[in-house]
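haha ok so turns out i had the wrong file open the whole time. this is the CORRECT one, sorry everyone. sequence first:
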Amino acid sequence: MGIVIGLILLAFICWLFVAESVFFWAGLSSLLMLCYYLEHSSVPAIFWQSSYEKTFLFWILMSATLLSLLAFAASFLQVNRHSGRWYQVFTGTALLTVVILIVGSLLSFKYKGLLYAFNYMLVWGVILSSGFAKVRSDGRYYIIYILGWLPMVVSILHVIFTLFLPHKMDQVISVSYKLIYVQYVQISHMLIHAVALMLRVKTLHKDKRQAEYISQAKSRFIAQSSHDLQQPLSSMNIFLDYLQPHVHGTKGKKIFKRLKNTRQQMNDSFNTMMDFSKLEAGGILPEIQTVSIASVLSKIQHEYQILAAAKNLKLNIHSSSLKISSDPVLLERMLRNLVSNAIKYTYSGRVVVGCRRRSRHVVIQVLDTGCGISEADQNYIFDIYHRSTLNPKQTAGSGIGLSIVKHISDLLDHPLSMQSTLGKGSRFSFTVPRAESLVPYPQEVVKSNDSALAVALVFQDDDLRGVVTEYLKKWHCRVQTFCTVDEACQFNTTKGLSNASVDVLLCEYSTLSVASLSTEGISELTQHYVAACACAPNTALPKNWIAMSIPAQPSQLRALLNAATRRRQTNIELDSKGEQ
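then structure:
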């Protein structure tokens, strides 16, 4: 029993840490199975002098055990609403188990036993047959999953033997052999399934890594091929301009106009796809700065007022004097996509853009009275590979505008939410921090020379080193330059910079890659100070290192120094607590 309970606890712990429902159902089904075996044995009669008669609670326990075993099998085999026939089989078997529980309460013990024996064998038949089908379609490791159920088949044979073969009815209640026998059956069942679960998780992680690699490779390929694809579109636009004076007649001009509209749609879709590919490939780095909401909303109003009027829609934009912290270019792109999408899918009524103050944040909202989004589509609305088919009218475009909005919101750390009612409209909201809620800039945090941040620079590029040094000195930082990372680390151990240790280490990737320290040693540097590296996008850096663009942007440098300031304050608080 200790082994069984230990495996059950292990299953629940895996469920809490891995968040895979299959571990939860494995633990719950094993727990109910243990209770069923103990109650079915002579243990209650021996230790608690209870009657050996099976009450209604016993049959409830048996039905609950069968239902949990079905749920575990369905979760392991990934049977869901999209699984077709097997989903119907599992659902039907579960419903039949509930019906048998209700009907069985009205029958005698003999007929109730026969009914539950049928239910018992039906559940095992569904579990085993679905496992064999999965082996044929998906993978060999499901064979181990099937082997995990074989010890339980012995229990089926025992039920058949008990119900249909003659045996002595009157027995003296003693220590049942099942008290030991069934425990070993369950241990075998759980251990084999534990191996199957490990193989399943390993396979899923391997498939996930491969899918991520393919997705990133695809995004990098499209982003790098943008120039080759853009050139024919540009040539097409030039040829159309040359062709226009030679087009005569009403019919020819109509065809030419449609041709230009088609080229424009193609160009817009292409640019949208390029933006999405750059976002996926990490080719776009945000430049966080103070942004006026009024200026952004003013641009949006001028751009989309005519488009809304052409569809007889009211575009109401409520401006604000608040200032926020964001990348103005990416923020405008988010709003453009949301407003454009709202106008595109709204055929009467209005589109409203406004903002609400929430403590130290601002919630920017785009509302419309359009066709809305169904509950089924809301789960996939930000997926590039999914486009709602419930829209009663056809609309032009690539359909990936919301995917770009989602990527930008993740890049800027502006949480995005959506509420929608089919046929009534939608509301998209994203939360942006207010400018005054930011940690003060380094020049405001560090005013005295004694408390100034110490920065170690390791740059081979003289121009880049000069620009960064100029910014840091303007913010009252004490700067020391080095030729190698090893030299900077050695300098820190000697307590340089006016006997103060280095707060920030900033280097180029070329200097980091030739450092004599091991990978673990370079990662451990972040325990002593904030470490950052100026490198190209998607460059693999040691653990806990911060990537910065080339050239380093002022906003990135400010953020780096803010992180060092917060770290220094935390260390001071910890030291003061230690002294107390």
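The domain at 442-579 is CATH 3.40.50.2300 (Rossmann fold).
again sry for the mixup
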